[in-house]
């Protein structure tokens, strides 16, 4: 099982590097296989097709972002600071992320945009679920239904600012943190 996980990670790493270098449209399954030193059939066996490979890469990258969100939330005892730090982390990291840049602005990667917009349900669901669990674990007196409702809105707004940034991350983070505290109150 460990060997399979390593192969999968290697394939995803190779895919990310190739997308950054060439754009998604110019990446072939054979290119991914060659980069890792396996057969093209191995890549197909692992992911099924190129679109599912892109989905797997997107979900893995989302988990990495959520690890950082967890860390940002944990570093703060007050809800306002925690939310502001988590949103600022997400927006700042996305702005510096070569794979996000390739997806959002790179020629030949337009086909990946739906994974962050119209077909982003898996990313949104995973983010909302993980954030709700973290927030309720850290602030157990908050109402679960309200946290779930607000987490959905904040995740969607944050993703919107990743796709189309309009203000500096700190400004957006402060706005969303105020929204959260006004809606939920300050549990600390």
Plain-language structure description:
The chain is mainly α. The protein has a domain at 55-184: Tetracycline Repressor, domain 2 (Orthogonal Bundle). 76% of the residues lie in helices and 0% in strands. The chain contains nine helices and no strands. The protein is elongated. The termini are far apart. The mean pLDDT is 93.
Can you lay out the helices and strands and say which pair or pack?
Blueprint: H1 2-22, H2 29-36, H3 40-47, H4 50-74, H5 79-96, H6 98-105, H7 121-138, H8 144-163, H9 169-184
Helix pairs in contact: 1-2, 1-4, 1-6, 2-3, 4-5, 4-7, 5-8, 5-9, 7-8, 8-9
Question: Which descriptors apply to this entry?
Answer:
188 residues; mainly alpha; Tetracycline Repressor, domain 2; 9 helices; elongated
Please state the overall shape, judged from the principal axes of the Cα atoms.
elongated
Question: What sequence of helices (H) and strands (E) makes up the elements?
Answer: HHHHHHHHH
Average pLDDT across residues? 93
In DSSP terms (H or I, runs of 4 or more residues), the helix count works out at: 9
The percent of residues in helical segments reads: over 70%
Largest sheet: none
Strand percentage lies at under 5%
CATH class of the domain at 55-184: Mainly Alpha
CATH architecture designation of the domain at 55-184: Orthogonal Bundle
CATH-defined fold name of the domain at 55-184: Tetracycline Repressor, domain 2
- Rg over CA atoms: 18 Å
Structural class: mainly alpha
Low-confidence runs (pLDDT<50, min 5 residues)?
A: none
């Amino acid at each position: 099982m460990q060997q399979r996980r390593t192969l999968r990670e290697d394939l995803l790493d190779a895919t990310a590097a190739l997308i950054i270098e060439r754009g998604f449209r110019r990446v072939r399954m054979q290119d991914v296989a060659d980069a890792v030193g396996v057969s093209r059939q191995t890549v197909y066996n692992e992911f099924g097709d190129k679109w599912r490979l892109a989905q797997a890469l997107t979900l893995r990258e989302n988990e990495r972002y959520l690890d950082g969100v967890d860390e940002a939330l944990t570093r703060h005892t007050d809800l306002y600071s925690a939310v502001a730090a988590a949103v600022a982390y997400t927006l700042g990291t996305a702005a510096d992320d070569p794979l996000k840049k390739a997806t959002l602005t790179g020629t030949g990667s337009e086909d990946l945009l739906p994974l962050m917009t119209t077909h982003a349900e898996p990313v949104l669901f995973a983010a909302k679920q993980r954030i709700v669990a973290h927030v309720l674990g850290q602030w157990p007196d908050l109402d679960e239904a309200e946290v779930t409702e607000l987490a959905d809105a904040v995740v969607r707004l944050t993703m919107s600012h990743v796709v189309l940034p309009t203000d500096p991350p700190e400004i957006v983070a402060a706005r969303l943190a105020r929204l959260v505290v006004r809606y939920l109150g300050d549990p600390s």
